[in-house]
Write a structure and sequence with these properties.
- The chain is α+β, with helices and mostly antiparallel strands.
- It has one domain: Pemi-like Protein 1, Chain: D.
- 31% of the residues lie in helices and 30% in strands.
- The protein contains 2 helices and 6 strands.
- It is extended, with a radius of gyration of 17 Å.
- The chain starts with a strand and ends with a helix.
Length: 89
């Protein structure tokens, strides 16, 4: 595991970055997330993950995996107050 200092990754502020694992992509484009990483992230069989990208100079430089349940909660937290304000007007 490689640890770093506060830095930016494609413009996104990070407090600590880590290389958790190196995985290979097979001929069908599939990869396996190591069990230790799945356990640490709380990813279980059947869970859905959203893949987001960060781009730099028009090229994808980072792939982010976010548990779908966490993404839904994040969107609700961010948009809920804004939607409420619109509804009240």
């Amino acid at each position: 595991m490689i640890k770093g200092k506060t830095d930016t990754c494609c413009g996104a502020e990070t407090s600590v970055y880590k290389v958790e694992a190196l995985v290979s992509i097979d001929s069908r484009g599939q990869m396996v997330l190591p069990k230790e990483l799945r356990d640490k992230a709380g990813i279980k069989d059947g869970d859905k993950v959203a893949i987001s990208t960060l781009e730099k100079s028009g090229r994808v430089c980072c792939l982010l995996l976010i548990k779908a349940d966490d993404l839904t909660g994040f969107v609700k937290d961010m948009l809920g107050p804004a939607a409420q304000e619109v509804m009240e007007k």
